[in-house]
Design a protein that fits this description.
This protein has 396 residues and is of the alpha+beta class. The protein contains eight helices and 13 strands. Helix content is 43%, strand content 24%. An eight-stranded antiparallel β-barrel has the order 3-6-7-9-10-11-12-13. Helix 1 packs parallel to helix 5. It comes from Alteromonas confluentis.
Length: 396
């Protein structure tokens, strides 16, 4: 016996959600085992996008079912009630799994745009919360929906073999064989794309012997620059420690994020009445550079990024400071990853008694310092342009 089919909208929503769920599961499992790479970013963006789409469609599906109750399955009353309970359990998990992923993404601080088109905000108040808690919640809910889907499919077979009720055609679009084949082909194409991206991903390179060999020379260069920095009569200003007063802004998968340089030593010799005699000398601990995300902080220490083992320090020195349009411009040299390039820092200076405030900014192109090489050498995943913002409280 074949029962009355669902209406067309219900069938479309059912299979759209089903395909997206299986695709999201495949994307998540594949991406989780990949090395950090632009392709991994792309797969996780697709994973989150598929999940967020499931969340929206599941809400629509729930309201549609409430307004258009399906015909009875043609089963005994107890089995009808059990089947209805199973369906409502699936609806709950279709909402809970992607929502837990949204919670997890919010605690991790990952910027996210739906299919790289529409920015999805973080859920407020979750940044800094335990990521492990929400990660475990997402995993356990995934196991729950996997078991429910397996049970859902198994009961179709049970009802067919033992109750003589064929429930599958009431949900399939068109002929059974044609509909099933189309759905399987669609899912196979999506998963095939995911595996293709996984095969393309290249592992993070480690620091090369050549980079390690350059380490003593890099230390000497920083030391020499610091020794000559004091050749000025301008007063010395030193940092009053405050959190995150040296930040950088970049974009990840098209969405902006803010990182910080947590450990640096600025020595600023400056008199606003005589800027030409000033010197700005800053040493940066590259190990302290953070994206405010522990996953990516591990990646950026590697050879394709900052090579922090080989180059634990970066250095900026400027002896060319000029007044310009009510502000000051420091033209200097930044040495990063053993590479020296000119960088201009524009800043404002506010001085009162023995304290001062230095508020400046600069823009660098990460390619000039071979930051993000190899598979990262494109603008698509992490932008080339990095904006530095400096807000220092100083004392004489």
């Amino acid at each position: 016996m074949t029962t009355t089919p669902y209406n067309l909208v219900a069938r479309i929503l059912h299979w759209a959600i089903a395909i997206l769920i299986f695709w999201a599961i495949g994307l998540g499992l594949i991406a989780e085992d990949m090395p950090n790479s632009p392709d991994k970013i792309e797969l996780f963006v697709l994973h989150k996008s598929a999940g967020f789409t499931v969340l929206v469609l599941a809400i629509i599906r729930l309201f549609w079912r409430l307004m258009h109750p399906p015909a009875p399955l043609g089963l005994p009353p107890l089995q009808e009630k059990m089947a209805a309970a199973g369906h409502w359990g699936l609806y709950l998990l279709m909402l809970a799994v992607p929502f837990s992923g949204w919670l997890l993404n919010s605690t991790a601080g990952y910027p996210f745009a739906w299919f790289n088109l529409v920015s999805i905000p973080h859920i407020p108040g979750l940044e800094g919360e335990s990521r492990d808690l929400y990660s475990s919640l997402h995993v356990y809910l995934f196991y729950g929906i996997a078991l429910m889907v397996a049970g859902h499919v198994a009961m179709l077979v049970v009802h067919k073999l033992f109750d003589g009720v064929n429930l599958l055609p009431r949900m399939l679009p068109g002929k059974v064989f044609v509909g099933a084949s189309a759905l399987i082909i669609t899912l196979a194409v999506l998963l095939g794309f995911s595996f293709y991206k996984a095969e393309r991903a290249t592992p993070e390179s480690t620091d090369s012997p050549q980079a390690v060999a350059q380490l003593p020379a890099a230390h000497e260069a920083v030391a020499d620059a610091s020794q000559t920095a004091t050749e000025t009569d301008s007063p010395l200003w030193q940092l009053v420690a405050t959190p995150d007063n040296f930040t950088f802004t970049n974009s990840y998968a098209g969405q902006p994020f803010v990182g910080a340089i947590r450990e640096f030593t600025p020595k600023i010799y400056f008199d606003p009445a005589n800027p030409a005699d000033g010197v700005i000398d800053v040493t940066i601990n590259t190990q302290s550079i953070t994206t405010n995300n522990k996953d990516w902080d591990g990646t950026i220490k590697g050879g394709q990024w900052f090579s922090t083992d080989a180059f634990p320090q970066a250095h900026y020195i400027s002896r060319d400071i000029r007044a310009e349009d009510g502000k000051f411009v420091a033209n200097g040299d930044l040495t990063l990853k053993g590479i020296t390039k000119p960088i201009a820092v524009t800043f404002e200076w506010q001085e009162e008694n023995s304290t001062a405030k230095f508020v400046g900014s600069a823009t660098i192109d990460r390619r000039e310092f071979e930051i993000g090489s190899g598979s990262w050498a494109t603008n698509d995943s992490v932008a080339f342009e990095v904006v530095l913002d400096i807000d220092l409280q100083l004392k004489r």
